[in-house]
Amino acid sequence: MSLLQNLASLDLSETTEKIIAEYIWIGGSGMDLRSKARTLSGPVSDPSQLPKWNYDGSSTGQASGDDSEVILYPRAIFRDPFRRGNNILVMCDAYTPAGDPIPTNKRFKAEKIFSQPDVAAEEPWYGIEQEYTLLQKDVKWPLGWPIGGFPGPQGPYYCAAGADKAFGREIVDSHYKACLYAGINISGINGEVMPGQWEFQVGPAVGISAGDELWVARYILERITEAADVVLTFDPKPIQGDWNGAGAHTNYSTKSMRSDGGIDVIIKAIEKLRLRHKEHIAAYGEGNERRLTGHHETADINNFSWGVANRGASIRIGRDTEKAGKGYFEDRRPASNMDPYVVTSMIAETTITWKP
Fold it and tell me: What is the pLDDT at residue 2?
């Protein structure tokens, strides 16, 4: 193993100017992350300098076998925390050879929304709280839980320390540092209410970059759990019963909301979200009905609500925002398996450009 580790950590800059670019894309399920690597002649800092590439879409559920070629368009570059040096991770989206976005390319529509002048002028900021659960590989049961059994009730585990309360911290801390190294604006981590469940936060990020950064942060976490021989799940309710689910609470503000008198803009935006509640729920992740029950710090999926400091509401306004009369609000409805391109752009569209 030491030989493999030494070879994997070789510093290419000692012998060549060539670098390795890991192209990342979203597969056919909408949640599976795929990647492959290619050699480039030298360091690259702008996605426009990168070549397009292709892959077999029939093997990812995104094309038929008789016309399987899908084209990758490089969109965002991050430093590679695994290979390091000048090597890079490249977030891509996918198109047909004719240049049309394939059906699972949600980034294309999101970028169109964020490019609208009214939206761009508002400089939408996002902070996404990504919850996830770590599972024992062979039994698909939460890390730290007795096989076939349950730990003690919830209460001692949230933000806790100790071998009987915090399971998987090395993975979590490794991911935190790897994201910072990559250039992702990861703003924090914490242990969650259910043991074996954790959260990281990405943001503030502006517009389309929020989706790019969250997807690459997910990819890095997948790679780290792979190395740790642990299974990662974004299921919004991995364990039925009296256990918290997993969400992706999305904090949001616009330039108008952050300005004096912004609280009035926030309340008007929340009213728009109320009017489109069903449309948003339909786009906020698969299996969310198992999580949004009105229990375990959630609102019922069928009823829209909002409040100040209320974690049982659909939308929460923080005390600091209420006191300042400006700031941001939190949409607590998105599931942990939501697509950040869909959720961020939909919130912007509803609150900025949509006319009831």
Answer: 87
Q: What is the pLDDT of residues 5-43, one digit of tens each?
A: 899 889 998 899 999 999 999 999 999 999 999 999 999
- Contact assessment for residue 13 and residue 86, using Cβ atoms and an 8 Å cutoff: yes
CB atoms within 10 A of CB 111: 17
Residue 1's pLDDT is 66
C-alpha to C-alpha distances, 296 to 154, 237, 262, nearest whole angstrom: 10, 11, 30
Which long-range contacts (C-beta less than 8 Å, at least 24 apart) are formed by 2-10? Answer: 9/84
Find the mean pLDDT for residues 134-148: 95
Q: Stretch 254-263: mean pLDDT, rounded?
A: 98
Which CB contacts under 8 angstroms, 24+ apart, belong to 287-293? 287/235, 287/236, 287/237, 287/335, 287/337, 288/236, 288/333, 288/334, 288/335, 290/236, 290/237, 290/240, 290/245, 291/236, 291/237, 291/245, 291/246, 291/247, 291/335, 292/333
Residue type present at position 154: Q
Closest CA to 96 of 63, 74, 50, 66: 63
191 closest CA partner among 241, 133, 236: 133
- What is the pTM (predicted TM-score) of this model? 0.97
pLDDT, averaged across the chain: 97
For the chain, percent of residues with pLDDT exceeding 90 = 95
- Amino acid 226: pLDDT: 97
- The 10 Å CB-count burial string (b at 16+, else e) for 9-20 is eeebeeeeeebb
Separation between Cα atoms, residue 206 and residue 177, nearest integer Å: 22
